[in-house]
Amino acid sequence: MSIRFGILTLSDRSAKGERADESGPALAKLIYAQAWRVVKQAILPDDQPNIRAALIEWEASGEVDVILTTGGTGFAARDITPEATRAVIQREAPGLAETMRTESLKKTPHAMLSRAVAGIRGCVLIVNLPGSPKAALENLQTIIPVLPHAVQLLQGDPKSEDSH
């Protein structure tokens, strides 16, 4: 199954060109290694209205099945990705965020500081990932096994029942 991804990097410094975005390209490389596609990619500052607008626009485009955000999930004052995501999702998918945190805790106690959320808007899955390239990749690798089935379910694919 081919899955179409959007990757939205959320970082004030990367948006200003003060720091290279390492997480977005690292996630794209992992996605391509799965024989999936990245069809949208952008870098935005930590600004809730712009993040919400991008998530809504990408979902409405019909071009993506999954939107991954990277960055803005911690405790810093400008870390507002979970709030922006909650403002646009229609249903939460807590098992994804819980599992990512559980697996991350095996590697670092800092996983307890993640406020990442996952949820559904329309037929699109939106998942918050950490801003660190290493942590973003580890978290994505944790959920990769369920993504094809999740997308099948969201698309109403009759074959989605075959894997139950």
Task: Work out the count of structural domains.
Answer: 1
Using the alpha-carbon principal axes, give the shape.
globular
Mean pLDDT across all amino acids: 96
Multimer state: single chain
Q: Can you walk through the features of this model?
A:
It is a single chain. The chain is α/β, with parallel strands linked by helices. It has one domain (4-156): 3-Layer(aba) Sandwich (Molybdenum Cofactor Biosythetic Enzyme, Chain A), CATH 3.40.980.10. 41% of the residues lie in helices and 20% in strands. The chain has helices at residues 12-15, 23-33, 48-61, 81-88, 94-105, 133-143, 147-154; strands at 4-10, 37-44, 66-70, 91-92, 118-121, 124-129. A six-stranded mixed sheet has the order 2-1-3-6-5-4, with helices on both faces. It is globular and about 45 Å long. The model has no long low-confidence stretch (mean pLDDT 96).
Q: What's the structural blueprint in terms of helices and strands?
A:
Layout: E1 4-10, H1 12-15, H2 23-33, E2 37-44, H3 48-61, E3 66-70, H4 81-88, E4 91-92, H5 94-105, E5 118-121, E6 124-129, H6 133-143, H7 147-154
Parallel strand pairs: 1-2, 1-3, 3-6
Antiparallel strand pairs: 4-5, 5-6
Helix pairs in contact: 2-6, 3-4, 5-6
Outline of this structure?
The protein has 164 residues and is an alpha/beta fold.
